[in-house]
Design goal:
The chain is an alpha+beta fold. Helices cover 47% and strands 28% of the residues. The chain has two helices and five strands, in the order αβββββα. The protein has a five-stranded antiparallel β-sheet with strand order 3-2-1-4-5. β1 and β2 (47-53) form a beta hairpin. The two termini are 16 Å apart. The mean pLDDT is 87.
């Protein structure tokens, strides 16, 4: 059983790693980032590109998160927060409820899969050694 547990273990680590990395980046940018308005540049569907200008006048582009709320009810503008030390590093602002649902999804899916993988790998190996 331990060999089949590697898949769920890897998937759980992957899900939690991606979620924690994204949350850490958002928190860091929320603390030290600069918020600006980004305007629609090109694209369509779920892959829309927006351009924003940093405080030094540099132009940057970001692929918008599909859940990024439009400003003023107009889909051509969204709010972006970028890192002043690296203006190319930016995230779209999201509604609190969106962040809560994403976090809950990662926790409710990633943690059980990770624990199941740990049980199937580590638990079985320890059972063989004892």
């Amino acid at each position: 059983m331990w060999a089949t547990g590697v898949g769920p273990l890897a998937l759980g680590v992957l899900l939690l790693g991606i979620g924690l990395s994204a949350a850490r980046r958002r928190l860091a940018l929320r603390k030290r980032g600069i918020g600006v308005v980004a305007r629609f540049s090109h694209g369509g569907g779920q892959k829309k590109y927006f351009r924003y200008t940093d405080l030094q006048g540099g132009e940057h582009e970001i692929v918008a998160d599909y859940a990024a709320p439009a400003l003023g009810g107009r889909s051509e503008r969204i709010k972006v927060v970028y890192d002043p030390a690296d203006p190319d590093r930016a995230v779209c602002t999201l509604a609190t409820r969106t962040l809560v649902w994403r976090g809950a999804g990662i926790v409710l899916l990633g943690v059980p899969v990770l624990l199941f993988g740990l049980f199937m790998t580590v638990g079985q190996v320890v059972g063989l050694l004892v």
